Amino acid sequence: MEKVLTIDERKVTFKADGATPLRYRAQFNRDYFADIISITNSLKDLNTGEVDLSKINTTIFSDIIYLLAKTADKEIGDIFDWYGSFDSFPVFEVFGELQELLLSNMQQSVKKAKKK
Fold it and tell me: Would 45 disulfide with which of 18, 51, 86, 92, CB 3.0-4.6 Å?
């Protein structure tokens, strides 16, 4: 699944596919699903107002955003150059826009065989 967003007046394509968790592990040496669960729990706490912002690992947001962009466009350079190519980058706003893409990647797509 893909999604195109306008960031800093330019179109950026993001893509999630079956290899996203593997790429994430290879790129950042962390478990994709554990990080998604961690930030999901942090966002729930944020919505209730019961969160210590210093305990939210914002690097996870940036890493996931970068990986989804890199998956869509293999020509993107390293993470520092890519983020540095923007005058400003609203990480939390972009991440919010990508939640549907992330969830679609995590949904079960294998159908169980019917028992006879």
Answer: 51
